[in-house]
Amino acid sequence: MKKWLYVLILSGSVVFYSFSFAGQETQAELNDVEQKTQEKSDVPWERFNLNLGVFISTLDSRLAIGGNNIGVGVDLEDVLGLDTSISAFRADVFWRFTDNQRHRLDLSWFDLSRDATKVLERDFEIGDSVFPVGATVKSKLDMRILKASYAYSFFQDDRFDLAASFGLFVVPLEYEFESQGFNQIYEQDSITAPLPVIGLRGDFAITPKLLKG
Fold first, then answer.
1. What is residue 211's predicted lDDT score, i.e. its pLDDT?
2. Closest of 175, 182, 187 to residue 5, by C-alpha
């Protein structure tokens, strides 16, 4: 029987630390034409931005025991003692790569990996193995998420930027479960799940130097 593992992120994120870098046209380029200079100076949208940060995420991980995606769900946080809330590193970067600033590429990466060791309070079945109650199980759940997308701003002026986007969510997922002691049992598997992403995003400039997205 095929076993399926899925993870649900229940909460948003809180950035504790971030670093940003933004690039605009040089003043020499803008001075070529007086009218172009005025237009560009009024547009607040960044051409390039890099953010590095740490955020808090709350997770609920379940293992479906059964075939064809039908079966009993096992709460891994409860059974194996995995943390339900973690601090994770995140990196985001975008680049507007045309002169009119309507075409934009976005990349995001963050790591939601966890590990734990716990004495089982109930039998735990996965693959062809059964980890019995009372066994000390060391578990590792690695999940990293990469998002890549392209966006086109179909409406853009000096205050509003509205864009439609599409791309991919790629989730490499790997788990390892190992019992420690006299009766040693080991199970490991991995899967990469690409998911399409279609979205609508908007930014609003409260002032020329303050953006709200």
1. 54
2. 175
